[in-house]
Specification:
Shape: globular
Largest sheet: 7 strands, mixed
Number of helices: 12
Strand order of the largest sheet: 8-9-10-11-12-7-13
CATH superfamily of the largest domain: Gcn5-related N-acetyltransferase (GNAT)
Structural class: alpha+beta
Strand content: 25-35%
Radius of gyration: 20 Å
Amino acid sequence: MLNFKKIEIDDIETYKKYTSDNSELSCENSFVNLIVWQCTYNNMLAVSDGQLYIKSGSGDRETFRLPFGADFEKGFFEIQKYCGDKSPVFWAQEGPAFELLKKNHPQYRFYENRDAFDYIYLQSDLSTLSGKKYHSKRNHINAFSNKFDWRYEKINASNIEAVRSCAEQWYRENTERADSYMMCEKRGVETILSNMEKLEVSGGAVITGGKVVAFTLGSQINSQVFDIHIEKALKDYAEAYTVINQQFAQNELSSYKYINREDDMGLEGLRKAKLSLKPCILLKKYRCCTEE
C-alpha cells in the first residue's frame, strides 16, 4: 500500500531521481510548484518499488498525478489499489504519460480545463522580441527606458533583500485582490527566496533608482523547458513586466528551447497578457475520471 507524506523541501533529490529525464512540458512537473502551492493543494508524495506518486487534495477532492517511473501500468495499478473500490481521479497534461492513460484505460473520460492550460513559448522569441508580432512589446521596453535609467541583475546574495522588499510592496499594492490563493503564493515567494540554492531556482531583477521594481523566479522542468513561477512588477513601473520577461530570457535561459509561463487561472487580464506574448504551445490539461 502506498504511504503518502507531505512534500517538503528536502524531498527534492528524491523527486529529481524520478523526473529529471522526463520529456513532459508542463509546470505540473515542477517540484517548486508542489512546494509553493502546498498550502492550497495539500500535495503529498509516495515512493514504492521504483515508482514515484503524487497526490493532491483530500477526501472527495483527492486527485493523483500520473505515475512517474519506468513502468506506467505498475504505477497505475498501485494507485488503483490505494483507492480501493473507487477509481482514482487523475490530473494530467498532454504528453507521453497521458497518451498511455488514453490508450490503456478506455474507461476514462477526459475533461479539459482551459483555465489551467500552460502557455509555452520559444526562448528565442521571448529573449529577442523580434518581428512584427512583438512590436508592441518592444514599445513597452522603449517606453520604460525613456522614463527610467535601469539595469538588470541576476538575483543573488547582494540583492535578495531588495527583491524581498519589492515582493512585500507588491502584495501591499494588491491587498484588494488578496484571497487564500494569493496568500499561499506570498508564502511561496518567501519559501523560494529563502531556499533558492536548495530548490535550484534562478531569478532576475530590474533595478532603477537603487530599488528593485520587478523580479522573476523560475526553475528547470527538464533540459529543454524552464518554468517561470513568479513574475512581479510594482504598480508605478508597469512596463517592467515586459522588461523582466525579456531580460531574464535573454540573460539566463539561452540553454533552453522552451519557456513555460504557466496558466492564466481564468483571469481575463492575465489571459490577454499571456496570449499577447504569442505562445507556440497551449498545453491542455485534463481532469481524468471514470464518471461523467
